[in-house]
Amino acid sequence: MDVLIKRKKGILRILFVSFFQIGAFTWGGGYAMVPLIQRELVQKKRLMNDEDFINILSIAQSFPGAIAINTAGLVGNRLAGFPGLLVAILGSVLPSFTVMIMAATILFHFGDLVLVQRFFRGAVPAIVALIATGIFSIAKRALKQRFDLILSGVLFVLVLVFDFHPFWIILIGALTGLVRKS
Predict the structure, then answer these.
(1) What pTM was computed for the model?
(2) Residue 75: phi, psi to the nearest 5?
(3) What is the per-residue pLDDT for 132?
(4) Which of 32, 77, 146, 162 has CA 20 to 30 A from 9's CA?
């Protein structure tokens, strides 16, 4: 019994530290965090496999709210139950909350300075690059069949060109998966 308690405490510590580090060093929000979460917990720590992570990511995207928080909660829950959910979310949110308070204070007092404006303007391309890297990394692992790639392209066009709501995109994808024979 002591071994199980120690193992669970170890996983809780890993979850908190991992999500805290990811939250502390990621700019650009949840989608920029996704490849870092995948790299840390799937590739480095090997706490789950790619398929489990992609399934969690699919579910996290279908929930309302921030993708990073949803992913953290689902990963934490998968690895350590409800305590894992709480620890992973806390680890993920705490750095952002602290940085947001500091950034708001700096912007309030120094937002008119050219140096501050240039810093934030320069951060935007980096954020776009992180998000694009995450999309490419996930697509490479998730879209293994030609049909999946085609469906992904069609759904992309529905969002981009026809402004479909994400709810309908997820529903179309899910229903296609239910009726499709693999």
Answers:
(1) 0.59
(2) -65, -45
(3) 84
(4) 32
How many whole angstroms separate alpha carbon 149 and alpha carbon 157?
12
CB neighbours (10 Å) of residue 133?
Answer: 15
Using an 8 Å Cβ cutoff, are 54 and 141 in contact?
yes
Query: Which pLDDT score is estimated for 85?
Result: 94
Give the C-alpha separation, 73 to 132, whole Å.
23
Predicted confidence (pLDDT) at residue 28 exceeds the cutoff of 80: no
112 Cβ neighbours under 8 A, 6+ residues apart: none
Please give the Cα distance from 180 to 114 (Å, whole number): 55
Phi then psi dihedrals of residue 144, to 5 deg: -90, -20
Q: How far is CA 15 from the centre of its chain?
A: 14
Q: Tokens representing 81? A: 């139950």
Q: What six digits make up the tokens of 66?
A: 């921030």
Mean pLDDT over each residue of the chain, to the nearest integer: 85
